[in-house]
UniProtKB/TrEMBL annotation:
Recorded coiled-coil stretches: none
Record-annotated HTH lacI-type domain positions: 4-60
Cited Pfam families: LacI, Peripla_BP_3
Protein's name in the database: LacI family DNA-binding transcriptional regulator
UniProt xrefs under Gene3D superfamilies: 3.40.50.2300, lambda repressor-like DNA-binding domains
Domain of life: Bacteria
Protein's organism: Pseudokineococcus basanitobsidens
UniProt keyword annotations, A-Z: DNA-binding, Transcription, Transcription regulation
CDD domains per UniProt: HTH_LacI
InterPro entries for this protein: HTH_LacI, LacI/GalR-like_sensor, Lambda_DNA-bd_dom_sf, Peripla_BP_I
GO terms for MF: DNA binding
Record flagged with keyword DNA-binding: yes
Taxonomic lineage of the native organism: Bacteria, Bacillati, Actinomycetota, Actinomycetes, Kineosporiales
Length: 328
């Protein structure tokens, strides 16, 4: 079915297109009776008419769209929270969020030139040429130092602290031989390297042997093979720090497949505190990140930027907490 136009609304309500424009754009200074205004609004509702984004941009001189560019990361709870908060905040200001995922390999310029946007938010730095071109086109550009998998913050330093916290928690529980379950996902290799570096540094600080590192696919047989190999070492690994909760849940499955008790034979700690961590058997100990606080910080920066106050402000919070459950 063809999209309704302002001309359709004008015919249905028996007024001119100019009157329709004045009514639907809220022109209080126009001398239009309340009855006529109601007739135009009723016709627009009945026809399902909505002004186009392009028309609004031409009328107001600015777009009501904000483009959020997601890097090629796995979509996780941080991104979900970010998009939800950002969508709500922009909706309150009469604006809409358009999301572009980095898996689309087309040049970014093809997108922002095809879609009239007011601002572009990047969770990772843009190429210098792309950013300069957007600014020349009058588009507000906001980037955030990304650190958490799939979302903004914490910073790279907090990634290392995450690995340190995992090992310190395991050592405090009496473990001296630690394994590290690395991810096989190349998209998060930078984060993985930082977390592993933190785990290694904590072992040095505590006088422990370096962690025994094994990649763990998210499949029970592969995880079982990794657990079997850890237990065959001399001395055997008694605790595993995993890259994130998904990998940790795989390690739990591998331990069950090997007939091992958790935490009696091997303790396991993850990162992110995903909902499934609380439902695991046994419930998973994890390092939780301050997702809500980090997302609120990014949204506040964007709103300030759109208001012309500039993107600068206090650094985002980097709250990390070990949530202790039965797996350790």
């Amino acid at each position: 079915m063809a999209r309704s136009t302002s001309a359709d609304v004008a015919r249905a309500s028996g007024v001119s297109r100019t009157t329709v424009s004045y009514v639907l754009n809220g022109r209080a200074d126009a001398s239009i009776s309340a009855a006529t205004r109601e007739r135009v609004h009723e016709a627009a509702r009945r026809l399902g008419y909505a002004p186009s984004a392009a028309a609004r941009s031409l009328r107001t001189g600015r777009s009501d769209l904000v483009l959020c560019v997601l890097p090629d990361w796995p979509i996780g709870p941080v991104v979900d929270a970010l998009l939800e908060h950002l969508t709500e905040e922009l909706a309150d200001r009469g604006m809409a969020l358009l999301v572009h995922h980095g898996r689309d390999r087309r040049p970014l310029a093809e997108l922002w030139r095809a879609v009239d946007v007011r601002a572009v938010v990047g969770l990772a730095p843009f190429a210098a040429a792309d950013e300069a071109a957007m600014r020349r086109a009058g588009i507000d550009v906001l980037t955030t130092a990304a650190g958490a998998e799939g979302g903004p913050g914490p910073t790279a330093g907090a990634q290392e602290r995450t690995g340190r916290l995992q090992v310190r928690h395991l050592a405090a529980a009496g473990h001296r031989t630690v394994g590290y379950a690395a991810t096989t996902d190349p998209r998060v290799s930078a984060f993985a390297e930082q977390r592993l570096a933190g785990a290694r540094a904590a072992c040095v600080d505590l006088g422990l042997p370096a962690p025994s590192v094994r990649e763990v696919d998210l499949e029970a047989p592969a995880a079982a093979a990794a657990v079997r190999a850890w237990r065959a070492e001399d001395p055997p690994v008694t605790a595993v720090a995993a890259y994130n909760d998904d990998v940790a849940l795989a390690v739990l499955a591998g331990a069950r497949a090997e007939g091992l008790e958790v935490p009696g034979d091997v303790a396991v700690v993850g990162v992110d505190d995903v909902p499934a961590a609380r439902l695991a058997a046994p419930p998973l100990t994890t390092v939780a990140q301050s997702v809500d606080a980090q997302v609120a910080h990014l949204v506040a920066r964007l709103v300030a930027h759109l208001d012309g106050d500039g993107p600068d402000g206090p650094a985002p919070p980097e709250l990390l907490e070990v949530v202790v459950r039965s797996s350790t």
